[in-house]
Amino acid sequence: VISFDKELNYLIVIPCVNRDERNAVNIIEETFLGFEKSGLFESKINYHILLFESGSNDVSYLDCLNGFKTKYPGKINIIFTKQKLNGNTNTYRMFDYINKLPTKNKIDFIVWMDDDVFVCKKFIENADAWIKRYANFSLFSSLYVPYQSSPVKDIPHIHHAKLPGFYGTCCTIFKPIVLQYPLQLWFHKHHEMFEFNPDVRFRESIRKHFFHVQNMCVCSPSIVQHMNIGSSIYKNKQKNKGHKCNNFIGTDIDPKFYENLH
After folding, report:
1. Among 256, 262, 249, 261, CA closest to 119
2. Which of 14, 40, 200, 234 could lock 196 by a disulfide, CB 3.0 to 4.6 Å apart?
3. Do 58 and 18 meet the contact criterion of CB atoms below 8 Å apart?
4. Residue 23: its pLDDT value, please?
5. How far apart are CA 188 and CA 88, in angstroms?
6. Integer Cα distance of 119 and 36 in angstroms
7. Which of 115, 131, 247, 141 is nearest to 203 (CA)?
8. How far is CA 57 from the centre of its chain?
9. pLDDT at 262
10. What does the buried/exposed string (b/e) look like for 179-201 if buried means 16 or more CB atoms within 10 Å of the residue's CB?
11. Any residues with CB less than 8 A from the CB of 49 and at least 6 apart, and which?
12. Which tens digits make up the pLDDT trace of 152-187?
């Protein structure tokens, strides 16, 4: 358990793409309006947001973030590329970029999110409290849980989930040291053969190094929800319909982990 008095540094990383070019809906502005409504930008928690644009032909879909960047200077940066990347190659680029940051050793936890999410009230304060209490008990953990999980007796707001069943990167938490595993095995022949998505490549890369680990710690209730609007942009899916959790606390509710996890 990390002391609640210790100030941690978080790097929030979000891959993004002009979803209109992938036959889907751009909703990144809704995500950032939700961040603002949650109080994220006015929080005293130490964090920085990096967006990784995947080489879209038209990047004007990100113009909607200019107001946030002006209003909250120094909080949001966008990392562009001229390469045309997909979800897998852009996520690999994101991990490689973070791994090479000269300030990597100053980052306590990476918060890997999607660009189409809802968050609870006081999201970052609640995430900070949960991470300090529980995140050291897993190779990685999640504050978004669309899969089955079970309570841990007499311990609040933590569930166990089967690590081999993890999917959905709406709010995945891990330390920078974990990056070495997906970077080594991201393009493993098995991952390529079965065209695994980023969440599965991340999970399986870690499992190949820690095959004996069966459980992971996850948040209960979920404090992040997948919008499920602009998702499923891949050709092998017929409908714009993706995963969603059924235990999201809601955008107007503050679970107050920062009070009741002390």
Report:
1. 249
2. 200
3. yes
4. 80
5. 12
6. 10
7. 141
8. 25
9. 78
10. bebbeebbeeeebeeeebbbbeb
11. 12, 13, 14, 75, 76, 77
12. 999 999 999 999 999 999 999 999 999 999 999 999
**Helix H or strand E segment including 192:** helix 189-193
Question: Mean pLDDT across the chain, nearest whole number?
Answer: 94
Report d(CA 130, CA 255) in Å as an integer.
11
**Beta-bridge mates of residue 248:** 222
Amino acid (1-letter code) at residue 111: V
Contact (Cβ atoms closer than 8 angstroms) between residue 135 and residue 109 = yes
Question: Which residues are CB-neighbours of 5 under 8 A, at least 6 positions away?
Answer: none
Q: What is the DSSP string of 103-152?
A: TGGG--EEEE--SSEEE-TTHHHHHHHHHHHHGGGSSSEES---S--EEP
pLDDT 10s digits, 51-103: 999 999 999 999 999 999 999 999 999 999 999 999 999 999 999 999 999 99
pTM of model > 0.85: yes
Query: Which residues are bridge partners to 139 per DSSP?
Result: none
Query: Quick one: which H or E segment has residue 92?
Result: helix 87-99
> What are 1-36's pLDDT values in tens digits?
999 999 999 999 999 999 889 888 889 999 999 999
